[in-house]
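Recap from last week: sequence in, structure out.
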Amino acid sequence: QVQLVESGGGLVEPGGSLRLSCVASGSISDKAMGWYRHAPRNQREFVAEINSGGITSYGDFVKDRFIITRDNAKKTVHLQMSGLNSGDTAAYFCNARFFLLNDWGQGTQVTVSS
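Predicted structure tokens:
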């Protein structure tokens, strides 16, 4: 298990960009690292994942707006988000997955509003 701490959320205008970061307390080299989001009245939604080999996958709504990267040496995962709109307003959670084992961060709030 690892503890995950997210940062980088905040208030941004429509069309703007944010970079979320997730720092782990231990090694992530053997884990798939991902981001999920949860908006009020909605179910938790998959945003992006990068596996231990560096292969990435994204939710359908992302449409080339987000990029997930990882730095195993720094035990960090980033989510670069651009072209943000009001529909992206949510709490964003970092996830570390090793087979069926999942660790979650506490989340960072992203609010897109003018």
